[in-house]
Amino acid sequence: MGPVVRRRDTWSMRLTDFWERMAAAFGPHAESLAELHVFSELGGRTVVQALADGEPTLRVWRAVCEGMDVPSVRR
Fold first, then answer.
1. Once rounded to an integer, what is the mean pLDDT over residues 5-12?
2. Which structural domain range is residue 70 located in?
3. Structural domains counted in the chain
4. Which residues does residue 45 pair with via DSSP β-bridges, in sequence order?
5. In this structure, is residue 31 part of a structural domain?
6. Within a domain: 7
7. Between the CA atoms of 19, 7, 54 and 72, what dihedral angle is there, to the nearest 10 degrees?
8. What whole-number distance in Å separates Cα of residue 22 and Cα of residue 32?
9. Cα(25)–Cα(23) distance, rounded to whole angstroms?
10. C-alpha to C-alpha distance for 75 and 25, rounded to whole angstroms
């Protein structure tokens, strides 16, 4: 058996991948959710605000998943 290789989480996700996941999870409501819903997981900011502030897209996606109870198969 070879050595255990742990994948390092670089907190990177392409912005296009982020928006594709948002659309898959929330359909036509994805943009409204991103613009209007304030997430405590993002420090009281919306998705749009968090991204504009430079939060890594992967962190924002995880916060959305947690805040909106996105099923694990969609994460």
1. 54
2. 15-74
3. 1
4. 39
5. yes
6. no
7. 40
8. 11
9. 5
10. 9
- What residues contact 24, with CB distance under 8 A and at least 6 apart? 74
Q: Report how far residue 61's alpha carbon sits from residue 67's, in angstroms, rounded to the nearest whole number.
A: 10
Measured distance CA(20)–CA(23) in Å, rounded: 5
Q: What phi-psi label fits residue 11: left (phi over 0), alpha (psi between -120 and 50 degrees) or beta?
A: left
Q: Other CB atoms closer than 10 Å to residue 12's CB: what's the count?
A: 9
* 73 band by pLDDT with thresholds 50, 70 and 90: confident
Residues 42, 23, 58, 17, Cα dihedral to 10°: -150
**Predicted TM-score of the model (pTM):** 0.81
Select the more confidently predicted residue: 5 or 9: 9
How far apart, in whole angstroms, are the C-alpha atoms of residue 57 and residue 49? 12
Q: Which one-letter DSSP state was computed for residue 69?
A: T
